[in-house]
Amino acid sequence: MKNNDTEPYDEHKNLSQEIYYNNFPLDNNFFDERSKREKALNSALEIRKFEIEMYWKRATYFWTIIAVIFTGYFVLINEGGLEKYPNVVFLVNCVGFIFSLSWFLVNRGSKFWQNNWERHVDLLENEIMGPLYKTVIQKKGIKFWHIHKEGKYSVSKVNQLLSLYLTAIWLFMGLHQLFWPYLSEIECLLWLAPYMTHLLGFGTLIAAILLLVLGKIDPVGQDTKDTFTQNTKDTVRISKRKL
User: Fold this and answer.
1) What is the per-residue pLDDT across 41-63, written as a single tens digit (0 to 9) for each?
2) Is 12 left (phi over 0), alpha (psi -120 to 50) or beta?
3) Which one, 19, 37, 107, 243, has least CB within 10 Å?
4) Model pTM?
């Protein structure tokens, strides 16, 4: 009969924090001065760094491809492609939509694995180097309108929302090309024609609001709070993120 405390990964069950630490003991062995927990922490930090590097490499790849697709799309439009090659224009639109949607999903997947290794670091670092990674030091009193100062926005969240916005743009243009010629013949919908640009502008405004609201991040989780004065000028809040 297996011991669940020593072999917790045999079944797909949630691990308690105690069982997690049991798998990474602090005791050194005879052949290695470093404990298993220290080696696990170093591995988690290295893999987290690798995930961040891969995140930006993937972002560069998708940005390049989507920019090329956008360029080709608008070149076709300027050359009268909607009248001469409607199927080709729609095909380019579909490719742009799929690449943008793929970028959005890849952003979510990359963030999932980055968060996974960050949580490992949060759990492993205390006895090795102290709560360095989970401790956040930030200046107090910074407001949104202080545009010359730092802000608590997540780079990955902003990137993720941006990829979703581009996906919505491709979808809007594709649906407009596909259905508007038929809808414009319906008399009760003719009033919409002059407002298509307004509709696109309204969608962009909604996207901007989502970026400002959902792009923010709470780096501390409100676990503990303390303040101290730095160089007698700036009041700083030092906090620990929740696990």
Assistant:
1) 999 999 999 999 999 999 999 99
2) beta
3) 243
4) 0.76
144-164, pLDDT tens digit by residue? Answer: 676 777 778 888 899 999 999
50 contacts 73 by C-beta, under 8 angstroms: no
Tokens at 92, concatenated: 């380019």
- Rounded to 5°, angle at Cα 181 from 178 and 186: 125
Three-class SS string for the chain? Answer: CCCCCCCHHHCCCCCCHHHHHHCCCCCCECCECCCHHHHHHHHHHHHHHHHHHHHHHHHHHHHHHHHHHHHHHHHHHHCCHHHHCHHHHHHHHHHHHHHHHHHHHHHHHHHHHHHHHHHHHHHHCHHHHCCCCCEEEEECCCCCCCCCCCCCECHHHHHHHHHHHHHHHHHHHHHHHHHHHHHCCCHHHHHHHHHHHHHHHHHHHHHHHHHHHHCECCCCCCCEEEEEEECCCEEEEEEECCC
* Tokens 């990137």 belong to residue: 159
How many other CB atoms are there within 10 angstroms of residue 59's CB atom? 19
d(CA 201, CA 210): 14
Residues 170 and 96 sit within 8 Å (Cβ to Cβ) = yes
